[in-house]
Design brief:
Structural class: alpha/beta
Order of helices and strands: HEHEHEHHEHHEHHHHEHHHEEEH
Strand order of the largest sheet: 3-2-1-4-5-6-9-7-8
Radius of gyration: 19 Å
Strand content: 5-15%
Distance between the termini: 31 Å
Number of strands: 9
Helix content: 25-40%
Largest sheet: 9 strands, mixed
Shape: globular
């Protein structure tokens, strides 16, 4: 899946001058959340803009880009929207077992992947998106528009996650929209970690997505799933971490697979609507976004903020293939009577959403 909307959003965001915005006043009963992600974009703006949400921190992880670049994007994004009160916590640079070399070897046996994130050097076939810039994991970071002047906290993401759930037991939602490496490390370090969180909401996995919107951009994003309906980038980048996450004892898990995203698009019309509604500073960010991308991560934030947006969902037991075969990283799913009972957990799987309500929510939140 061509999952670099967050990188493009950041490139546009960073090219703009910083505009300080006051942190929204929080209600006493604001819901606590940690955002674990491999970029910075509209999803973060949504959660940071909600007066009903207290963002305790952003934990960064390699995925769309290497962690050092993701960390700089998060710091610069928070500077740009005037939210440097929110800590950025550096996470995992490498997947648990997967690697660039292993991925290239897998491709020789099973065919090229559409999108490889930090491992990506070129598109396999012509696409509307520009070729992604390639960087090594230790290359110096030089962001478009300038590097951040603030710094990440001196703590490791897995330790931060553990410390926060112990400090606020049963209160923290983790919204994860990148590979699951940080969560898996936290669970292995502290087996109580998942059970101490309030819930996990994640964007990842794939069941049977189909093209819904009839245009070239939508076709580009949907083409991958014609022959590989169970493969999705966030999971494929670190399948072992995803499997650990899926079998951890969370109180509640909400899965947002690719499936509902094919009915969404950051169209020119939606960008214009959001730009008109957005508050000063955010309006320039919104109008600079590249159109055509699905709203992957925004769906995850939206259904957590307002479950009424969910049109179709299903309770399934989920795990992910961690064997190094053709299906490495594929989504595995079972109904209640059929799951193998190896620790996989029941999840609320979001299959379709109310797209007009999502777009209205976006317009409201960027305007706060």
């Amino acid at each position: 899946m061509l999952r670099h909307i967050k990188l493009l959003a950041v490139a546009a965001l960073l090219a703009l001058s910083a505009t300080a915005q006051a942190a929204p006043e929080k209600r006493p009963d604001a819901r606590k959340v940690i955002i674990d992600d491999d970029g910075f974009g509209l999803m973060q703006v949504m959660l940071l803009s909600s007066p009903d949400v207290e963002v305790l921190g952003l934990t960064t992880v390699s995925g769309n880009a290497w962690e050092n670049r993701v960390r700089a994007q998060a710091l610069r994004g928070l500077e740009w929207i005037g939210r440097t009160d929110v800590p950025v916590v550096p996470g995992a640079t490498f997947p648990l077992l997967n690697s660039e070399v292993l991925t290239e070897r897998w491709e020789k046996d099973h065919g090229p992947l559409v999108f490889k994130g930090a491992f990506m050097k070129r598109w396999v076939e012509d696409t509307q998106q520009a070729p992604p810039p390639y960087h090594g994991p230790n290359d110096p970071v030089d962001l478009p528009g300038g590097n951040p002047t603030t710094h990440a906290v001196d703590e490791i993401a897995a330790n931060f996650l553990i410390r926060m759930v112990h400090k606020y037991p049963g209160q923290i939602t983790i919204v994860a929209c990148g590979p699951m490496t940080n969560l898996a490390l936290a669970q292995r370090l502290d087996p109580a970690f998942a059970g101490l969180a309030r819930e996990l909401v994640y964007m990842g996995g794939s069941l049977a997505p189909r093209q819904v919107i009839d245009n070239r951009a939508a076709a580009d994003f949907a083409r991958e799933f014609v022959n590989t309906p169970r493969r999705e980038f966030n999971i494929r980048f670190d399948p072992e971490a995803a499997s650990i996450m899926a079998r951890a004892p969370w109180r509640k898990i909400t899965m947002v697979p690719v499936d509902p995203s094919t009915a969404t698009q950051l169209s020119p019309a939606l960008i214009a609507r959001l730009g008109k509604a957005a508050r000063p500073g955010v309006d320039r960010f919104v109008t600079a976004l590249e159109p055509g991308f699905p709203l992957w991560d925004e769906i995850a934030a939206a259904v957590w903020l307002d479950p009424a947006l969910v049109a179709t969902h299903r309770r399934l037991y989920i795990d992910f293939e961690s064997q190094q075969g053709a299906g490495y990283g594929d989504t595995l799913s079972w109904d209640e009577a059929y799951h193998p009972g190896l620790g996989e957990q029941a999840q609320d799987v979001i299959l379709a959403i109310d797209v007009p309500k999502l777009e209205t929510m976006l317009a409201r939140l960027v305007g706060k």
